[in-house]
């Protein structure tokens, strides 16, 4: 490949190469030098750990300022309070609706395929469930007693509430408000630019994360739960490739093919970080600049989605509950299944967009239907991989909802969506500096 050809590689291809290279290198080192202390100390826990963690931290670094600034911009341009209420209502309704579909499909498949087998119950099982918060606490906690503390803790719902009130106030103080709004709009462009710069790090970050993963992932427990693993995977893929595209077509009339093409980077980031929150900067950048969603909608629906909309997580929880019931030979009634749908919807709402929390929240669902929480020990071994895939599904769901809602609110740019190259992140840092893709920059 010539230098000029390699320069033309898009970010997605670079990330894919990083991903493949990382997995290959990890597997190679693992097989050539099993249990090697040097590799463990200097690569797995050394270089790969440092680069991978820096990559995830640099994405997370942007989340709080991005959500706050972007949401203030979004709400101060929505001067009509009824519009805000309608947007909120529609968003939450759509999120709950897709989660309920995800769970229904997941549970139906689990009943049909019967992944659980009573013989698995004999393996030593121990799992200490963390206490899940009560619903009352969840509601009370939406109101921050100290917004700065909410920001330092990265408490998304509290930040959202404060930003909405702040932005709303800006839109109601006339001329002075306009000046503040202009400042926030400029800040928004700055932070979006930082996002696109940090996205350039992705191929290296993803390489390190994948190399570390393939060096450390334990495959021992894999065999016994292989049916469970592939069933969850299949339902996740069905949801991403059939359910979402159909919903997009039905509710917005837009092309699912174009959507799937443009969402790829977001899915890759989610897959590599296993965190909806860490992916949020990329999701927002893609929704606004690649898909054509207005900031007014995206700044509200996406942070909310990264916090409460977890269809992929719900799918895992639905299949896992039925699987554990089958393993322990417990028959679930129709009412139990309905209970699973309701509690798993709430559990996925309560799941934070960080790695592995979905499994902790599964304890809440199991408790609710009277299943043994120790069952979680069975599936823990394969959860890391499923976490990566379900996070990619989670962020896809947030983006589908955002596009559908933006379209229904008339806050959507059809030309941007139809243009395959719109908002493509510049290929290199130099391109980025030479050809800024920010309007009026
Ligand atoms: N890792 C998931 C996410 O960030 C949450 C989970 O299911 O554990 O979306």
Structure in a nutshell:
The chain is mainly α. It has a single domain, classed as Sodium:dicarboxylate symporter (Proton glutamate symport protein, Orthogonal Bundle).
Question: Major sheet, described briefly?
Answer: none
Total individual domains: 1
Number of helical runs? 19
Helix share, percent: over 70%
Small-molecule binders here are: aspartic acid
Mean pLDDT rating: 87
The N- to C-terminal Cα distance equals 34 Å
* Level-1 CATH class name: Mainly Alpha
Instruction: Report the portion of residues in β strands.
Output: under 5%
* CATH architectural category: Orthogonal Bundle
Gyration radius (Cα, Å) is: 22 Å
Say how many strands there are.
Answer: 0
The gross shape turns out to be globular
- Look up the CATH topology: Proton glutamate symport protein
CATH superfamily: Sodium:dicarboxylate symporter
Low-confidence stretches: 1-6
What is the string of helix and strand elements? HHHHHHHHHHHHHHHHHHH
Topology:
Blueprint: H1 3-8, H2 11-32, H3 37-76, H4 81-113, H5 135-140, H6 147-153, H7 156-170, H8 174-199, H9 202-216, H10 226-252, H11 256-273, H12 276-291, H13 295-308, H14 311-327, H15 334-350, H16 357-368, H17 376-408, H18 414-418, H19 429-434
């Amino acid at each position: 490949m010539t230098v000029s050809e390699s320069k033309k590689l898009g970010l997605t291809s670079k990330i894919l190469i990083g991903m493949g290279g990382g997995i290959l290198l990890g597997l190679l080192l693992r097989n050539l030098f099993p249990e090697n202390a040097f590799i463990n100390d200097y690569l797995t826990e050394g270089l790969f750990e440092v680069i991978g963690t820096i990559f995830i931290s640099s994405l997370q670094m942007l989340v709080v300022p991005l959500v706050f600034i972007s949401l203030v911009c979004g709400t101060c341009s929505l001067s009509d309070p009824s519009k805000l209420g309608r947007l909120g209502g529609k968003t939450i309704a759509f999120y709950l609706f897709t989660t309920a579909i995800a769970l229904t499909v997941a549970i139906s498949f689990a009943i049909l395929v019967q992944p659980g087998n009573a013989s698995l119950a004999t393996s030593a099982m121990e799992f200490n469930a963390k206490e899940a918060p009560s619903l009352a606490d969840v509601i009370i906690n939406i109101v921050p007693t100290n917004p700065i503390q909410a920001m330092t803790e990265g408490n998304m719902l509290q930040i959202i509430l404060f930003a909405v009130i702040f932005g709303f106030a800006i839109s109601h103080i006339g001329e002075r408000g306009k000046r503040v709004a202009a400042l926030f709009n400029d800040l928004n462009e700055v932070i979006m630019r930082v996002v696109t710069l940090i996205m350039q790090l992705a191929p290296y970050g993803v390489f390190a994360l994948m190399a570390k993963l393939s060096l450390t992932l334990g495959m021992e427990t894999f065999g016994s739960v292989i049916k469970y693993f592939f069933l969850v995977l299949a339902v996740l893929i069905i949801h991403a490739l059939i359910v979402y595209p159909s919903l997009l077509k039905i509710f917005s009339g837009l092309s699912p093919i174009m959507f799937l093409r443009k969402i790829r980077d977001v899915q890759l980031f989610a897959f590599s970080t296993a965190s909806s929150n860490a992916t949020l900067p990329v999701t927002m950048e893609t929704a606004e600049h690649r898909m054509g969603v207005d900031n007014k909608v995206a700044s509200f629906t996406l942070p909310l989605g990264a916090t409460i909309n977890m269809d992929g997580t719900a799918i895992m929880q639905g299949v896992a509950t039925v699987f554990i019931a089958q393993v322990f030979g417990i028959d679930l009634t129709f009412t139990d299944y309905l209970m699973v749908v309701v509690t798993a919807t709430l559990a996925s709402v309560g799941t934070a967009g960080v790695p592995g929390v979905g499994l902790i929240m599964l304890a809440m669902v199991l408790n609710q239907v009277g299943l043994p929480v120790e069952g979680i020990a069975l599936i823990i071994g394969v959860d890391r991989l499923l976490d990566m895939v379900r996070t990619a599904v989670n962020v896809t769901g947030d983006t589908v909802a955002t596009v559908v809602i933006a379209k229904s609110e008339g806050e959507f740019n059809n030309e941007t969506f139809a243009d395959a190259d719109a908002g493509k992140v510049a290929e290199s840092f130099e391109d980025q500096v030479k050809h800024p893709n920010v309007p009026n920059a």
